[in-house]
tRNA N6-adenosine threonylcarbamoyltransferase
Amino acid sequence: MLGIETTCDETAAAVVARDSDGKGRILSNVVRSQTDEHALYGGVVPEIAARAHVDMLDHLIDAAMREAGLDYAALGGVAAAAGPGLIGGVIVGLTTAKAIALVHDTPLIAVNHLEAHALTPRLTDAIDFPYCLFLASGGHTQIVAVAGVGDYIRLGTTVDDAMGEAFDKVAKMLGLPYPGGPQVEQAARNGDAARFAFPRPMQGRSDANFSLSGLKTAVRNEIGRMESVGEQDTADLCASFQAAVLESTADRLRVGLDLFKQRFGAPTALVAAGGVAANQAIRGALDDVAQAAGTRLIMPPPALCTDNGAMIAWAGLERLALGLVDGMDATPRARWLLDANASVPGKFAN
Ligand code: ATP
Ligand code: MG
Ligand code: FE
C-alpha cells in the first residue's frame, strides 16, 4: 500500500506491507518537512504549504517506490489522507492518489488523517480492540475509545486549544523557533519545573475534557511580569509549563480510562499517538497512568507519531482488509470528525 500525507506541512509518502500474520512492515517512509518555508512566519501558511506539496509530492512518491524496490504494478492500493487539514494540501494529495489509482488500476482508499494517527500503534504492535487512545497533535486533543476500524467513540476533547498548539504558542512567546513542541521539550530539560506554579486545567473534573488556553495565558502573563527573559528563565518557564501539561494530562486520562471501563470494560492498552506523543516526558507520565489503571502503555516511535506516510498506508491496509474502498468521487475535507458516525457525538470539534 502506497500512503500519501499532505494535510499540513509535511509532504510524505511511504510503502507499507501487511504480512500474512497481520503485522505491518514499512518498506519505505519518506517525509519532507516544510519547516524552512514557514519558519519566517512562525507558523504554517496554507497557500505556501499547498504549493510546496505540489512541488515535492511526485518526487517523494517516486523516492518511496524506489526505496521499497517496487513497481507501481505491484501495489495493492493507494491511500491518501483526505482530511481533516489545510484544504489546498489535501486536494494535492488526494488528486495525486486518484491519478495513480486510475492509471495503475489499483484500489483508492481515502483515509481520515486522525484515523491514521489512531491506528498507527497497530502497525508496530500486535494490539487488539478495544483500546483507549490519547490523541494529541497540532490540531486535536482527544481521548477516544477505539472499538474497531472505523468505530471510534470520543470520551473527552479539548474545549479550546489543542495540546500541540499550546506547545507551539508558548514557544513563540519565548522566541523559540517553529515548530515549538520539540523546542519546549528541549529547553525544559535544563529547567526548574517548580519555579512557576502554573494552573493544572480541569483537574478533578468528572468529565475527561481538556483545556489549554488558560495555561497558555498564565505563561504569557508570567513573561509579561519579567523584566527580561534570560536563557534560564526560558528553561524554567518551559519546564513549569510542561509539568502543568503533564499533570493535567495524567488527571484527564485517569478519568478517561474510568469512563472507558464503565462503557467498554478493560482496554487492551492505553495508546498515545499524534505529534505531542513524541515528547519523552509525556511518555513517562503516561506510563504511570497506564500502570495505575492496570493496563499497558503503547506508543509508536516518535517518527511515526508526527505526520508521515506510513500511518496513512497502514490505515489504508486496515480499511482495504475490510473491503472499505473509495471511488473517484471521494472528496477532500477540511473538517472531518473521527467519530462522525458515533452513537454519542462529542460536543466540541477538537
Ligand atoms: P493534526 O494531526 O491534529 O491534524 P498535525 O498533523 O499538524 O495536526 P502532528 O504532526 O500530528 O499535528 O503533530 C504536530 C504537533 O506536535 C505540533 O504542534 C508540535 O509542536 C507537536 N510536537 C511535536 N513534537 C513534540 C514534542 N517533542 N513535545 C511536544 N509537542 C510536540
Ligand atoms: Mg507538521
Ligand atoms: Fe497529524
Remarks:
- The radius of gyration is 20 Å.
- The chain is about 45% helix and 15% strand.
